[in-house]
Amino acid sequence: MTDNASSFKLRSALKAADLEHRKKINFNIGRYNAVVPMGKQQFNDLDLVRERAKNLKWKALESMDRNLEEFEIAFTRRGGKVIWAEDSKQALDEILKICIEKKCRTVVKSKSMVTEEIKLNEFLESSGIESIETDLGEYIQQLDHEPPYHIVTPAMHKSKEDVARLFHEKLNTEPGLSPQQLTLVARRQLRNKYREAEIGITGANFIIADTGAVAITENEGNGRLSCAFPQTHIVITGIEKLIPSLTDLHLFWPLLATYGTGQQLTVYNSIVTGPRQNGEYDGPEEMYVILLDNGRTNILANEKARESLYCIRCGACLNACPVYKNIGGHSYDTTYSGPIGAVITPHLSGMHEYKHLSYASSLCGNCTEVCAVKINLHELLLENRRQSVLEGDSSWGEKIAWKIWKKANLNRKLLNGGNKTIKDWLVNKLFKGWTTYRASLNFAPKTFNEMWKERN
User: Which tens digits make up the pLDDT trace of 97-110?
Assistant: First the structure.
């Protein structure tokens, strides 16, 4: 067992037993579940919309090389600059190079999972550059020195009382402030940072091939301010965020809003096509787009895992997953948690180190059922398990246990031979690994085969 697997099991066990944590998560996911059905009412045929969105992502990824080149040509035509980064180190080096060139001391940053993936904040701080998260949830997490807990709602695990206590400790506010008061405090803290910052960094919800545009969707306006106020705007995005055409946003924006937060459309939806043009009065003087691979082409090369790149990061699969709702986002100790994280992380960061995530699933299929773009997540979890076995990542004890299981199941006499007591003892006492993190198995007094013979 790897160190990652051991620490995952330890953290999971602690969180699963934390009833206060579960109460907060169930409350917040309950609110999400209450509003999503209302958002879905905007679609006449939701199933058809999801199918079309999936097909568009398939189309974009099947010709990714041409689409990325088309994006670069259109974007650079308007004065933008495209940087290709094979891994996180290349991306960080390029960002630092720009920061040094611009004599940057402060960066404002809107919510971006890709920047979490490459650990941008820690890198900038180690280089003497202040990096400020401007999304309220991300700002709360940065104050508490924690990574995001959830793809869409970074501070989902915190109650309003937790946030009030954090602001009192870190910002010397009055204790017990209301959510409205806390929001105003954060707004006052952040507003001047937009004016001070030399560089604004954002992610991209979608990059649009035919127009060379970046689409950003958010609810607070912080992304738009991070784009417009600083003199330099850097977008860092995974290469899988491609969609073929600007007209495709009429599908993806409502889907992302509905499955992400239950809205019909998020409050701020921006299409950025480059730096400030002649005759324009606002916007950055320079704009860069960093196209990050960082293992994504490994997934693209895998015919079965490829569809996981269709993901639009709505977070619906996390909210539906019974495992996530019990152990929480931080137990995974990865950038992407929940079912989608369990699918893609072994391919991005190594199957041997992260194969355990694909086993942290009930295989109930609820993640597949709620996916906005119909990714067969539970089947991909099984495929990861299969691949880890083929690569020889199974322990000796696991191999022996499954050989015995196979032999027994291929022999009816062996299967019927032991009574309930013997079977219970074998699984629950002899093979103790089964019950370490699971409830005991209790076999029926008679097998179905035995009951069938008695009746016939």
Answer: 999 999 999 999 99
